[in-house]
């Protein structure tokens, strides 16, 4: 997966990419991937899955993620916000 160009991304673009990643990697129905969806209770990811998702986000942004950048991520919306922050660094 190629990195998102920082100058052209929107939160909708990031959300669409996350829907694709979560579907391809974890077989999650894209319709369930909403900004409000909790990664652990709604999408049933576990801690190992969260690490895999962080790696996917690294690939998406082309930026190395520090553990503290992903520590407070709980919802899909949190992931979108983290990606946007990483892309603007």
UniProtKB/TrEMBL annotation:
InterPro entries linked: ACP, ACP-like_sf, PP-bd_ACP
Domain of life of the native organism: Bacteria
HAMAP family found in the cross-reference section: Acyl_carrier
Pfam families given in the database record: PP-binding
Involved pathway(s): Lipid metabolism; fatty acid biosynthesis
Biological function: Carrier of the growing fatty acid chain in fatty acid biosynthesis.
Stretches assigned to the Carrier domain: 12-87
Family affiliation: Belongs to the acyl carrier protein (ACP) family.
Protein name, UniProt field: Acyl carrier protein
Localisation per UniProt entry: Cytoplasm
Post-translational modification (record): 4'-phosphopantetheine is transferred from CoA to a specific serine of apo-ACP by AcpS. This modification is essential for activity because fatty acids are bound in thioester linkage to the sulfhydryl of the prosthetic group.
PANTHER family, per database record: ACYL CARRIER PROTEIN
């Amino acid at each position: 997966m190629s990195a998102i160009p920082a100058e052209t991304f929107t939160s909708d673009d990031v959300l669409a990419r996350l829907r694709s990643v979560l579907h391809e990697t974890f077989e999650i129905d894209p319709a369930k991937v909403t900004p409000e969806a909790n990664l652990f209770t709604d999408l049933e990811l576990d801690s190992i899955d969260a690490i895999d998702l962080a790696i996917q986000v690294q690939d998406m942004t082309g930026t190395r993620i520090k553990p503290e950048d992903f520590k407070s991520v709980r919802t899909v919306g949190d992931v979108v916000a983290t990606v946007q922050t990483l892309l603007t660094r």
